[in-house]
Amino acid sequence: MSEHECVFVEEEEPSGRKILVPCLTCGYPGMDALEQLRDDVAMWSRTAKDIVKEMRALAEDFNANGNSRELGDPRAAVWHEAARLIVTRLEHGA
Ligand SMILES: [Zn+2]
Prior knowledge:
- This protein is 56% helix and 6% strand.
- The protein is mainly α.
- β1 (10-12) and β2 form a beta hairpin.
- The longest helix is centred in the middle third of the chain and has 37 residues, at 30-66.
- Bound molecules: zinc ion.
């Protein structure tokens, strides 16, 4: 199947409830796509929250020794720790 952007058309049932019909190109059910999107958003917001929490924990160290150092300065260990946290989170999710 060729790469494409799935298109889900919103239709209204006789009851008035709005539903998404499956993608016209590949038949992928719109509701599944919405579910997947919700899961992704939830996962990313959890991940972001955890990163913020861990960054907050590092904030004092930032002020103490990271703030005045350039990125890449080997003495700025706290920067590297922060970068490592972010990369780990992004790679492995929550
Ligand atoms: Zn599709």
